[in-house]
Amino acid sequence: MNKLYVVGIGPGGEPYMTGAARLALEECELLCGYGVYIDLVAPLFPGKPVLTTPMTREIERCRMALEAAAAGKTTAMVCSGDAGVYGMAGLILELSGDFPAVDIEVVSGVTAALSGAAVLGAPLSHDFAVISLSDLLTPWDLIERRLALAAQGDFCVALYNPASKKRADYLRRACEILLQSKTPDTVCGWVRNIGREGQTHQVTTLGALMDMTLDMFCTVFIGNSSTKLLGGKMVTPRGYEAKL
Question: Which CATH class is domain 3-107?
Answer without folding.
Answer: alpha beta
